[in-house]
Amino acid sequence: MGIENFVTFMVSALLFIMTPGLDTFFVLNKSLGRGRKSGIQAALGVNVGILTHTMCAAMGVSVLLAKSAFAFAAVKYLGAAYLIYLGVANYRKRTDFDGLEQLSTNGQKVKSDFWSGFLTNSLNPKVALFFVAFFPQFISDHQIHNPMPYVMLGVTYAFIGVVWYIILTLFASVFSNQIKENPSSSKLLNKIGGMAFISMGIKIAFFK
């Protein structure tokens, strides 16, 4: 299928995924704030976003982002604005951890966690550029314009991501009951999370 050094790719992908970043923080924030089910939905949303970037790379859209200043700027500022919006909403949220189980099992909330994870990842142009730089290293020269190697590598990357983030969620959600016992901890977590999302949005906006 035109893929070279597949084992090396999987090890490298795991190391990148395990490195703390926006996706890791997002999943942990949902796991601690709303419980295991929300964390898993956030993890699924983030990695469906990975598949979106995979399809873009396969169709050459990611290359367009790398070459077109306008296209890159449009996606970059849209993603930054969305992160800042999430940050402000999180910072202003006053809901404590009472009723956390109801929140985590509420269908609308769970669906929102999935789509938030999806949009947070899909609207980050740094992920698209990362794939443009990373994937071709494991694709043979004569298959570099074939979309199938990109798809296979992207699906593998997303699968590794889902497994890692679900493991992370299962460990993180254990602490949610301890957090619920301290009513003020929810407000502190919301403010910390809000500031983190805002800072990440600003960082993406000024990324060159």
Molecular structure report:
- The protein has eleven helices and no strands.
- The two termini are 34 Å apart.
- Mean pLDDT is 77; it is low at 96-108.
- By secondary structure, the protein is mostly helical.
- 41% of the residues are buried.
- Helix content is 81%, strand content 0%.
Q: H/E element string?
A: HHHHHHHHHHH
Would you tell me the overall average pLDDT? Answer: 77
The largest sheet, given as strand count, sense and whether it forms a barrel, is: none
Shape: globular
| Helical fraction | over 70%
Specify the structural class: mainly alpha
**Secondary structure tally, helices:** 11
What is the alpha-carbon Rg in Å?
18 Å
Q: What kind of oligomer do you see?
A: single chain
End-to-end span in angstroms?
Answer: 34 Å
State which percent range the strand residues make up. under 5%
How many strands?
Answer: 0
Low-confidence stretches: 96-108
Summarize the structure.
The chain is mostly helical and 208 residues long. The protein has eleven helices and no strands.
List keywords for this structure.
mainly alpha; globular; 81% helix; 208 residues
Write the layout of secondary structure elements.
Blueprint: H1 6-18, H2 22-34, H3 36-59, H4 61-67, H5 69-92, H6 100-105, H7 107-122, H8 125-134, H9 147-173, H10 176-180, H11 183-205
Helix pairs in contact: 1-9, 2-3, 2-7, 2-9, 2-11, 3-7, 3-8, 3-9, 4-5, 4-8, 5-11
